[in-house]
């Protein structure tokens, strides 16, 4: 398979969701989606609260604001959408209705599931982002207008390989 650029959004997201030091973003119970606690994510990773000068481990490492080049949660959600993630909306009585409307940046809060937080969680899903399946990351492509045109024409969209400084 093609090498995965460690500096692209999916690879950075993979490292965060699998980090034992990050509490604000984690796998859902099935390992097929992400649960994001927005207030904690903003404080812990985007530098919107005390202690934002250190990374997720609290050891002076780079935080997500540096990783994702934003301090805005809406911009982070937009990146998820550009890579094909969809917000999972909750159906009646807490059952998951599946990806649906409201997956955009202004889509509101989902109730989430499987989280221990009393706050609502944002629940996002992508068929190519699964726990224990890093091999699927090569299928996550940024949905630019050029890439959408290639996909519509039945062409393959390739990831940019790591440059010589990233290898």
Draw up the topology in text.
Elements (H helix, E strand, L loop, with lengths): L8 H9 L7 E3 L5 E4 L1 H7 L19 H5 L4 H10 L3 E5 L5 E4 L22 E4 L19 H8 L15
Antiparallel strand pairs: 1-2, 2-5, 3-4, 3-5
Give your account of this protein's structure.
- Homooligomer.
- The protein has 167 residues and is an alpha+beta fold.
- The protein has one domain: Arc Repressor Mutant, subunit A (Orthogonal Bundle), CATH 1.10.10.10.
- It is built from 5 helices and 5 strands, in the order αββαααβββα.
- β3 and β4 form a beta hairpin.
- The longest helix has 10 residues, at 73-82.
- The model is unreliable at 51-62 and 93-117 (pLDDT under 50).
- The gross shape turns out to be globular
Number of domains in the coordinates?
1
Average predicted confidence as pLDDT: 71
Describe the biggest sheet?
5 strands, antiparallel
Strand order in the largest sheet: 1-2-5-3-4
Give me the CATH superfamily: Winged helix-like DNA-binding domain superfamily/Winged helix DNA-binding domain
Tell me the structural class: alpha+beta
Number of helices: 5
The CA-CA distance between the termini, in Å, is: 16 Å
Number of strands: 5
What is the CATH third-level topology name?
Answer: Arc Repressor Mutant, subunit A
List the secondary-structure elements in sequence, H or E: HEEHHHEEEH
Rg calc: 16 Å
Low-confidence parts lasting 5 or more residues at pLDDT below 50? 51-62, 93-117
CATH architecture: Orthogonal Bundle
- CATH class annotation: Mainly Alpha
Give the fraction of residues assigned to helices: 10-25%
Strand content: 5-15%
């Amino acid at each position: 398979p093609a090498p995965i650029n460690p500096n692209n959004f999916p690879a950075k997201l993979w490292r965060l969701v699998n980090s034992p030091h990050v509490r604000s973003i984690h796998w859902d119970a099935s390992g097929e989606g992400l649960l994001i606690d927005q207030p904690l994510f903003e404080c812990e990773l985007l530098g919107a609260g005390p202690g934002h000068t250190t990374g997720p481990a609290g050891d002076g490492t780079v935080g997500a604001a540096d990783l994702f080049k934003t301090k805005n949660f809406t911009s982070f959600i937009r990146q998820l959408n550009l890579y094909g993630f969809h917000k999972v909306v909750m159906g009646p009585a807490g059952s998951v209705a599946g990806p649906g409307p409201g997956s955009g940046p202004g889509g509101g809060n989902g109730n989430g599931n499987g989280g221990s937080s009393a706050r609502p969680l944002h629940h996002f899903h992508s068929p190519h982002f699964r726990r224990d399946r890093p091999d699927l990351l090569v299928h996550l492509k940024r949905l630019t207008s050029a890439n959408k045109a290639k996909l519509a024409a039945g062409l393959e969209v390739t990831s940019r390989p790591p440059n010589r400084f990233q290898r």
